[in-house]
Design a protein that fits this description.
The chain is an alpha+beta fold. The protein is built from 4 helices and 4 strands; from the N terminus they run H-H-E-E-H-E-E-H. The protein is globular and about 50 Å long.
């Protein structure tokens, strides 16, 4: 956990351990809490949400914040959701999960399992370079 995260987290003393992990995740996908604009709110006991005005340039390659968010979410077992939230805003929601197996609303698969599941559902031919 970086000192930068500690600096921004001190403004949210009500964060429990799960919410703190979600907070750190949100800081990381924004390249630091100083780039995160919007009100952080509790989303249940295990999550956070932010109505973000700074969630832009999220893509899978150049400006690869979307790929970073997906990989970090799977590595850290954080369910990440993006919702519409008004003009020029997105609502980012993060919920901490604690297991790889179990009921849908309790688990979070590894990135490798998620990739395999998508490729089974949407097979495509390999393109030779």
């Amino acid at each position: 956990m970086s000192n930068e995260h500690d600096f921004y987290a001190k403004h949210y003393p009500w964060l429990n351990a799960d919410q703190r992990e979600c907070f750190d995740f949100l800081c990381d996908i924004h390249n630091g809490g100083n780039h995160m604009f919007g009100k952080i709110q509790a989303c249940g006991d295990h999550g956070l949400s932010i109505n973000s005005t700074s969630a832009h340039y999220m893509s899978t390659f150049d400006y690869s914040a979307l790929t970073t968010a997906v990989v970090l979410a799977h590595d850290r077992m954080i369910r990440f959701q993006i919702e519409p939230s008004g003009p020029r805003m997105l609502k980012l929601v993060a919920h901490k999960r604690h297991q790889r197996e179990g009921r849908m609303n309790e688990r979070h698969p590894t990135i490798e399992d998620a990739i395999n599941n998508v490729r089974k559902q949407y097979p495509c031919d390999e393109v030779e370079a």
